[in-house]
Structures are given as C-alpha cells and as structure tokens.
Design goal:
Elements (H helix, E strand, L loop, with lengths): L2 H8 E7 L1 H4 L9 E6 L15 E3 L5 E5 H9 L3 H7 L4 E4 L1 H8 L1 H4 L3 H24 L4 H20 L10 H8 L5 H19 L10 H16 L9 H8 L5
Helix pairs in contact: 7-8, 8-9, 8-10
C-alpha cells in the first residue's frame, strides 16, 4: 500500500496546527496540517512494515501511524501533545474520537522535562543568532514564549491549552521585533522558573496512563484485523488460521 493511500484511506484524526491553531496567524501564515492514520493490521504481518510517519501528500502535511503517535504522546512529546489539543479539528472518525477522549491519559509531569528540554534547545539557537547576527529570529522567539506559557499553565492546571487567547498581541509584538531581546530573554527565564515551581505541586500524575492507552491500541488493532480490504482475499484465511477472529 502506497503511503498516500494510507493517509487518504486510513486517517482517523486530522487537525490544523502551527500559528492558526495557536491564535497567532497573520495574513502570510501557512496552514500546517497534522494527522494520525491507522495502518491495517495485516500490513504488520509481513517483513515490510508500514511507515511510522508520512509527509504529504499535501504541502505542510505530516501524519503519524497510530502506534508511533501514542508512543510519542506517552513520552510527553510537546508537538504530539499539542496536536491532540488543537482547537481546529478537521476530521475524526469513531477511532479518532476515542483517541481524543484519551487526551488526559497521555498527560503527566513528564511534560515538565520534555517541554523544558525542547525549549532549552530552541533558546540556544536563538542565542546563537543573537551572537552571529545581532538579533534572534523573532518568529521563533515568539513561538518559544508561547510554548513556555503553555508548559507552565499545563503544570499549574493539568490542562493543555494551545490557543494564546488575550496574549496574542504581546506575542505578535515580539514577532515584529518590537520588544528588546533582553526583555524577551528575561521573560523566558521567568516562565521557565514558574514552570519549575509549578511542576513540584502539579495536579498532573507522575506518569501517563500507559495501560489505558495500550488497551485502546490493542482493541483497534484487533478490530482492523477483522476488516477485509480490497486486496485481502487471502487475509481472512490467515486470520482464521491464526485464531484471531475466534477470540
């Protein structure tokens, strides 16, 4: 099965991310699309496994296979967790809606480490730009501030909200280069400290609910194994021989 067909025929969840989801879009903003597809279970039985992620087929589109997506979400990957909380959902079938209902199962205090580590890497890049060019890439500085705000509020409340709301204008001022870098840098340091303090008394559990997520994944894999595809005349015989359909 071609990658494009997996995205076209087996997507369970699709959303818009980036500036449009964050409430920071301007006239020239791209539309970044992200999605999750469920590869048919029969594709895992051979030596050649389906891809864990696929770029395209449209520009600015990226999709993960469900298992890979869940693995990254359980590790509190910032991009994945935010994908699950996009306010701009373009598509969700029954399985996609079940995935969305699991959003809280992925959240844990691990988010402090992963968000902080990602933020630190981005901040080092900004500091390198300042040393070399005299100024950071202001758009990246804006998005780093947004990420730090999101991380702090997640640790404080236990809820992940990615739309910046009434913080839009101050953040866009950073993007336009209207805020001096020392002030931006100071704010980043303050947000990181506030996130550290929030992590010590966060309402989030120490670890994600891995068992609940795994039960969901196994259940949808089993259901997929029982669904014949257009080229699966021999698959059902294999399924029956292995006893999958008898459990």
């Amino acid at each position: 099965m071609q990658p494009e067909a997996l995205v076209r025929d087996h997507t369970i969840y699709a959303c818009v991310m980036g500036s449009r989801a964050f409430g920071l879009a301007t006239d020239g903003s791209d539309t970044d699309r992200r999605g999750v597809f469920l590869a048919p279970t029969a594709l895992f039985w051979g030596f050649d496994k389906p891809p864990a992620h696929i770029e395209g087929p449209r520009e600015e589109q990226f999709s993960w296979e469900l298992e890979r997506f869940c693995e990254l979400a359980l590790r509190a990957n910032p991009n994945i967790l935010e994908c699950l909380h996009s306010p701009l959902v373009e598509y969700a079938d029954d399985t996609g809606r079940e995935l969305l209902a699991l959003r809280e199962a992925f959240l844990s205090r691990r988010a402090h480490e992963t968000f902080t580590r990602y933020a630190l890497g981005q901040r080092k890049k900004l500091e390198a730009d300042v040393r070399v060019h005299g100024a950071p890439r202001w758009k990246h500085a804006m998005h780093l501030l947004r990420l730090l705000i999101s991380a702090r509020d997640l640790l404080r409340t236990g809820r992940l909200t990615i739309d910046v709301g009434d913080r839009r204008e101050p953040l866009l001022a950073v993007r336009r280069g209207e805020v001096p870098w020392p002030r931006v840098e100071s704010r980043m340091a303050r947000l990181a400290q506030e996130a550290e303090e929030a992590s010590r008394r966060s309402p989030l559990p120490p670890e994600p609910d891995r068992r609940r997520v795994e039960d969901f994944l196994i259940r949808v894999r089993r259901a997929s194994a029982l669904q014949p595809g257009p080229d699966d005349e021999g698959v059902q015989g294999v399924v029956g021989a292995r006893g999958v359909g008898q459990r």
